[in-house]
Amino acid sequence: MVDEDQTPEWWKSTLTAAWFETRMEADRTMVALSAGGIGLMVTLLTTVGVKGRWAALFYTAALVGFVAAIVVGLAIFKVNAAHIAEAADDPEKADASPLRPRLRRLDWALIGSFGSGVLFSILVGIATATTPDPTVPGTHPTEQGEAFDGGEEAGAPADTTEQDAVREEELRGAYQPAPDTADGI
After folding, report:
1. Mean pLDDT for all residues in the chain
2. How many CB atoms lie within 10 A of CB 70?
3. Burial of 62 from C-beta contacts in 10 A (0-12 / 13-18 / 19+)
4. Partner of 114 for a Cys bridge, out of 24, 69, 167, 173, CB 3.0 to 4.6 A?
5. What's residue 130's pLDDT?
């Protein structure tokens, strides 16, 4: 094992640069994915629309989460730049910088806001898929009959009329209409 005092300075700086790039890449990725999430929510809003109060709430929460992630990500870039400038001026004080706890809080805020945007986007999908569309006939539960019992003819009204019975017989081929007697007149 190499003693820390014997580690070459170039090795320490290389590891520090690699660590920094890895952390910044994660932040950049979350900002880019948040922008994509906003685009997805806007696309869903314009193509599918809002189906119910819960979907509207989830759309709003997802958009707020993604916008917050972008704002926090940009704040992280700004604070990181100040932290790097501070560390370049006095490398000994970089670890004790008052910006480090702030960066840590901003990192958690970025993860939380991005995660909430993703979570609410998933809930938008669930709410949209499970809410019937009132503009499509036959998808609203009240159009399928008040007394749905799950019998053979799911979705059929509970009380069938004589006309419905005749239609069913016609479809089965059992109904034979009376011959037209007006032909000879």
Report:
1. 77
2. 21
3. buried
4. 69
5. 86
- For the question of whether the overall pTM of this predicted structure is more than 0.85, the answer is no
Q: DSSP class of residue 134?
A: T
Please tell me the least confidently modeled range out of 61-65, 109-113, 117-121, 148-152.
148-152
Angle, CA of 108, 113 and 115, to the nearest 5°: 95
CA angle in degrees (0–180, nearest 5) for 119-122-127: 125
pLDDT average, residue stretch 28-53: 92
Residue with token string 């870039």? 77
The dihedral sign for the CA sequence 3, 7, 13, 18: negative
Total residue length of the chain: 185
